[in-house]
From TrEMBL:
Membrane-spanning segments: 6-24
One GO CC term on file: mitochondrial membrane
Topology of this chain in the membrane: Single-pass membrane protein
Gene Ontology MF term list: proton transmembrane transporter activity
InterPro entries per record: ATP8_metazoa, ATPase_protein_8
The name this protein goes by in its record: ATP synthase complex subunit 8
Keywords: ATP synthesis, CF(0), Hydrogen ion transport, Ion transport, Membrane, Mitochondrion, Transmembrane, Transmembrane helix, Transport
Organism name: Sapayoa aenigma
GO biological process assignments: proton motive force-driven ATP synthesis
Pfam family, one: ATP-synt_8
Length: 55
């Protein structure tokens, strides 16, 4: 059963991760986010009281 032979699949996986780690990752990391996360706490809206028409 050739799918149990780890040699070709391990080599492909290792080569792809090395390529990603050395070439693609440094090129992708310098990009800035279009919507950077903020550290401000979200303001919670104050709930208004409900005016019941029959009271």
């Amino acid at each position: 059963m050739p799918q149990l032979n780890p040699y070709p699949w391990f080599f492909i996986m290792l080569t792809s991760w090395i390529t990603y780690s050395t070439i693609l990752q440094p090129k992708l990391l310098p990009f800035t986010l279009t919507n950077p996360p903020t550290t401000k706490p979200m303001a919670t809206p104050k709930p208004s009281s409900w005016n019941w028409p029959w009271t």
